[in-house]
TrEMBL record:
Gene3D superfamilies: 1.10.1740.10, Winged helix-like DNA-binding domain superfamily/Winged helix DNA-binding domain. The lineage of its organism: Bacteria, Pseudomonadati, Pseudomonadota, Alphaproteobacteria, Hyphomicrobiales. Residues 32-95 form the RNA polymerase sigma-70 region domain. Coiled coil: none annotated. It comes from the Bacteria. It comes from Pararhizobium polonicum. GO terms for molecular function: DNA binding; sigma factor activity. Residues 125-177 form the RNA polymerase sigma factor 70 region 4 type domain. InterPro entries: RNA_pol_sigma-70-like, RNA_pol_sigma-70_dom, RNA_pol_sigma70_r2, RNA_pol_sigma70_r4_t2, RNA_pol_sigma_r2, RNA_pol_sigma_r3/r4-like, WH-like_DNA-bd_sf. Belongs to the sigma-70 factor family. ECF subfamily. The keyword Transcription applies. This is RNA polymerase sigma factor RpoE. Keywords: Sigma factor, Transcription, Transcription regulation.
């Protein structure tokens, strides 16, 4: 999701939180409901269960829009996390306290194949090489945001840089990084 879409969705949530804007909510519902349903069905929820969970998530969005903080996560991350948690809660309720050891949501991810490890190692080295070509200030901000998981506000507070400067430097760094990776024949899709 690009920066403009993130800002647009954040503005819609704000309109819902402040004004109970039904048009903004409708736009959010139309965009996210089918995506949430698809996500839940990929997590082995049945159609009815997926639809029920989506309804719960959208009710939460309507009632608790004021709790969403765009500095902490994107709206999609927030909504998908709520959906995942509701799905787990529903599974727990259905099993009356006993969990199925084979429940896909509760199983650890399968270890990556050896080929994937080699490919990921190669990709990691390419990215490290590209990062080394960026100015130190930009690399520092990228590390804080993506390796340490700090929000832009936290980075701003830690570095003393204005929030807008943090955001623009990270955006600039990504532009340069993308150009370097494309120049090297890596498009990030493989």
């Amino acid at each position: 999701m690009n920066v403009d879409a993130r800002q647009h969705f954040a503005a819609l949530v704000l309109a819902v939180a402040r004004n109970r804007d039904q048009g903004a909510f409708s736009e959010l519902f139309d965009f996210f409901a089918p995506r949430l349903k698809s996500f839940l069905m990929r997590q082995s929820a049945g159609v009815m269960e997926a639809e029920e969970v989506v309804q719960e998530v959208m009710v939460i969005l309507w009632q608790k829009a004021h709790l969403y903080d765009p500095e902490k996560s994107s709206l999609s991350t927030w909504l998908f996390r709520i959906a995942r948690n509701r799905r787990i809660d529903a599974a727990r309720r259905q099993r009356t306290g006993t969990l199925d050891a084979h429940e896909p949501l509760l199983l650890p991810a399968a270890p990556p194949a050896l080929d994937d490890l080699v490919e990921n190692g190669d990709r990691e080295q390419i990215v490290r090489t590209a990062l080394a070509k960026l100015p130190v200030e930009q690399v520092t901000l990228i590390r804080m945001a993506f390796f340490f998981g700090q929000s832009h506000s936290e980075i701003s507070a830690a570095t003393g840089l204005p929030l807008g400067t943090v955001k623009s430097r990270i955006r600039l760094a990504f532009g340069k990084l993308r150009a370097l990776l494309e120049e090297g024949g890596v498009d990030g899709s493989g």
